[in-house]
């Protein structure tokens, strides 16, 4: 029972917003200026890192591969 009370009081003591919606937490328009700057810097770093981790593919590579796939499919159908 004591843990429930601490859980309820913690956000008020530390100024943490209680929101269950993750979109609300990560919405830059609702952030303070310092938080917004830090968030955008972290997003830029993430976008720079993802190609090296093979989690993000440049749009030109995607366009080239899709064109190749469509070319092969249309040749088979004709």
Can you describe what's shown?
The protein is an all-alpha fold. It has one domain (21-77). Helices cover 68% and strands 0% of the residues. The longest helix is centred in the last third of the chain and has 19 residues, at 59-77. It starts with a helix and ends with a helix.
Task: Looking at this protein, list some descriptive labels.
78 residues; mainly alpha; 4 helices; 0% strand
Number of contiguous helices: 4
- Measured between the Cα atoms of the first and last residue, the distance is 72 Å
Largest sheet: none
- Helix proportion: 55-70%
Morphology call: elongated
Strand segment tally: 0
Runs in which pLDDT lies below 50 for 5 or more consecutive residues are none
The structural class is: mainly alpha
- Helix and strand sequence: HHHH
Percent range for β-strand residues? under 5%
Overall radius of gyration: 23 Å
Tally of discrete structural domains:
1
Quote the average pLDDT.
83
Write the layout of secondary structure elements.
Layout: H1 2-14, H2 22-25, H3 33-49, H4 59-77
Short note summarizing the structure:
This protein is an all-alpha fold and about 80 residues long.
